[in-house]
């Protein structure tokens, strides 16, 4: 299916930005119950239109109705989690220091909170047309923080983007939110203009390293730079110890194959590089499961057609061999493939061997000593996740130190595909995994779109409601250094 | 006094960076009591050498022994506050979600905390040779977060920088911290290399808009961009209503003169632009106090010599008149001056009239209607502070909305000079006040140098000590969405 490409003009963008700017003070001033009700109204509207949206999404992304229906649930659950976060109130970081006339110099009264930064730009992703797109995590957390959002539609699913934006924008207005709360722009030029627009105060992005870097540079190059929260790419290293192979090699091999082929290898948390002990027979076990694995069509014909060239790029390295291919692919589908190399090659040519490769492929890296393993791990770029499969008998302190430095989520069981949307989730890591010290999934993603303001010696009548003593009694806050739960 | 300019070579910087990289895991792993003891050891050493340090600082900055001694106290108090912050533990943002096998999909156990980002670069300021320099707030918060620091000395006080660094570095090592915990580099080229050095993971800066922007661009232009937390400049708007002039005009005029001439007008929170009601006689009252005010030498001969050109730049605007000068200046001193203009001029030429002007000068801006005031306020650049002097009879909602959007600290009494170092302080604001959504003063400054890591399904033995259940019992944390104080 092809859709005519729509491009938002500069004049249209200016109008949308003006509406967002006008909506911003309303969102910022909305109390917790109101803002939470707006988020839930958006979630309810998406659920009510799930059948229609899944059908459009499947036609545009080929991800399949089952997966896409699950993603709608994840997306509406995410909006509802942020409604809860807003109601709970910790995200405001309410902090009061009472005046102290006896201090030298005397201290004024200070009451601090976080407030929305203003209109936010969100660049949606190709591989999660719901959860990381128009009404995804960036949008949900930006709205929850009290900011209108302008989304740049992904060119891979324009009809879905338009329909989702229309449904959510209408639901917000119906629930009482101002016009201008959510808008959509389309086309690359409009996206570039969006991140540079004076009204926009922060941006969220999920996508490629190249595209993300270009937008990051535009955001940083503004006369008034703004924070750009991008998730750009991740190889998600896995380390398996000899003891783990001995104890549960078969289960590990099966789990790995399931994870790197999940969703045809198009998850940002796909395990792309797996450090395995040399001579332990683990490659053969992986080959056994991978040979029976199925691929499928990738998001678009162009991405599917490009998949083999990424493999060829890896195979061009003299150290790389093919462990196995998966089941033969239908025409227009990607066939799973497992490659292998050795730790010394990775340590010396990381820019060749450790580039993220979209699709059902993983690279096994043989190591024969701790020193080899550590040298190769140090060459791994910042990642969203790192996974360690070890046994209690292993001394993994040194490996764990490196993995914790390289990734935002460290797993000790299971596989990195699958990102629970919870209070503690961390979906972000050192460059190039993300461009900031924040997460794009989970409750604390809201912090990206908030800025602190402290009120000094304010008359109670001029304080925001949440900073008055009556509100503090029921909200989490810190007073004179002491944390109170508000319960 | 002149001091030969020392420049740290690339080879020297590499060695210092390697030492910082080696120290980083030790700082990151140090428990709260240990890290707090290191911060207090640094504070104690500075206090013990206060006489010597104040003498060097006075010779290099001409700020006077009394002010400088107070600044030493502020600096050591700041180090001790961060020791308390480390011990209290909220800064770790400990968050646990227990596993939930009944969820769809099943949820793993997640345990999240913040950890140090790694070695931090700190660029020290000219106007606070202690509190915003080698052992100032950026350094204290970076160390508290568990990171070694490399400071770029300010060229305005090289001997003080060297001596402070030597004292603190020795105190840290004597207290058990690793070599490489604190180092100093000198020279502009070394500073540029520092912010681009692969070992450096974040940078703090206090200084000029031009210098800060150049370093920000270097940080953002790295192959792996790093966060750059800069405080670049602020005009600190003040709004005075007609009712406030009527009720307490004399006290306000006296307070304003005291604030804009404090420290010879060299505070980053100096009230630089003051919106006053036209025809209320406030200018005459300010003139009365300002005519008797004294100036003094600015930080260096070069800055003192440049002061009149900043005034001339403002006076060149046809709307600007001189309200009064202060007492005649000694040779080599800056004479206070009060200028005035009108709100319409400010709204139409903000880039000329609202540029930060270092030294004892302030600009009174007459307004004759709310519309005029609002239009001019919208033109004010992001600032560290905004001050509103009003009376209960005033309707200030619209003014307050703008001021809260423009500044990180909003005052309702007193004057913005003077920044209490407390849990709630916010010293930061929209660009160009600062380059980030964070503060450089107060307890939460520590967040700038931390990154989140979540551990999924970790065996207890492999968890960091603070994330084990036994630690959580006594530390602030969130579990399954519920906040606990740990008391």
Mind explaining what this structure looks like?
Chains A, B: This is Aldehyde dehydrogenase (NADP(+)). Chains A, B: Residues 5-429 form the Aldehyde dehydrogenase domain. Chains A, B: Keywords: Oxidoreductase. Chains A, B: It comes from Microbacterium psychrotolerans. Chains A, B: Pfam families: Aldedh. Two copies of one chain form a homodimer. Chain A contains 16 helices and 17 strands. By secondary structure, chain A is an alpha/beta fold. In chain A, helix 6 (158-174) links the parallel strand 4 and strand 5. Chain A has two domains: 10-232 and 436-482, Aldehyde Dehydrogenase, Chain A, domain 1 (3-Layer(aba) Sandwich), CATH 3.40.605; 237-411, Aldehyde Dehydrogenase, Chain A, domain 2 (3-Layer(aba) Sandwich). The radius of gyration of chain A is 24 Å and the shape is globular. In chain A, the strands form three sheets. Chain A has a seven-stranded mixed β-sheet, sandwiched between helices. A five-stranded mixed β-sheet of chain A has the order 15-2-1-16-17, covered by helices on one side. In chain A, helix 3 (50-61) crosses helix 4 and helix 4 (65-88) packs parallel to helix 5. Chain A starts with 9 loop residues before the first helix and ends with a strand. The first copy, chain A, has helices at 10-29, 32-48, 50-61, 65-88, 137-144, 158-174, 188-195, 209-221, 242-260, 282-290, 301-315, 343-348, 350-353, 370-378, 397-406, 469-472; strands at residues 95-97, 110-116, 120-123, 149-152, 182-185, 202-206, 228-231, 237-240, 273-277, 321-325, 337-342, 361-367, 383-389, 407-411, 450-456, 477-479, 482-484. Chains A and B meet through strand 1, strand 2, helix 8, helix 15 and strand 14 of A and strand 1, strand 2, helix 8, helix 15 and strand 14 of B. Strand 14 (407-411) of chain A pairs parallel with strand 15 of chain B, so a sheet runs across the interface.
